[in-house]
Structures are given as C-alpha cells and as structure tokens.
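Predict fold of phosphoribosyl-AMP cyclohydrolase; 123 aa.
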Amino acid sequence: MTDPVTEDREQGQTFMPKFDAAGLLTAVAVDSADGSVLMLAHMDAEALAKTQETGFAHFHSRSRGRLWMKGESSGHVLQVQAILVDCDQDAIVLQCVPAGPACHTLAPSCFYRRLEGGKLIRI
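Predicted 3D structure, encoded as tokens:
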C-alpha cells in the first residue's frame, strides 16, 4: 500500500516539489512551438519561485552558487508558457518561448551535437 504523501505527490493536485539532497530539481527547457530541447539546468526553491513569479526561467547556477535568470546578460531569455511536473515531482519541463539562442555558444539549443562512432557531430 502506498503512503498518503506518496499517493498525493504522484496522483494528487498538490504541488510538492521533491528536491534532491543538494536542494535541486532537474529542469528541462523545451521550445513551446516545436518541443525541441533547449537546455537542461537545475532549480532550487528560490529559482522555482522566481520563475513562477516572473514568467521567465530562473535557475540555480551550481558553478556560481547563486540564482540566475537565463539571458540576464545576453538578453536571450526564456519566457515560460507552462511548467510540466513529472510523476514524482523531482523534475520539471519548462515549455518556453526563447528570445534568441538558448546556448551560451549561440547555438539554438545546448544539444547541438550528436554522438556518433565515439565522435561528436554537429547537428
């Protein structure tokens, strides 16, 4: 038998994000127009709240150890249209309208290479 908290988290309507030991959720940003994967990042409670409050994707930078808004210096923001939550609430998908390239390399997506025969091939 499933405990009531797990039942509510997996089947209910209560938003109960399940952060990992470091206090993070995995967040995948996709283009709301075509579903293509734009980037993968992590969110802490502050980033999640700021994203919901502003409608723009915010993340927790593990390398900088702080909150950052995607595009805060480049202007290539991600306007969030919807937030999808996975079954056990430890990962989310942000359906976004990108204002420019999502990747810091200026590629449209951070996933611009395919692994083929041990080598990375630009898509």
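Residues 28 and 93 are 5 Å apart (CA to CA).
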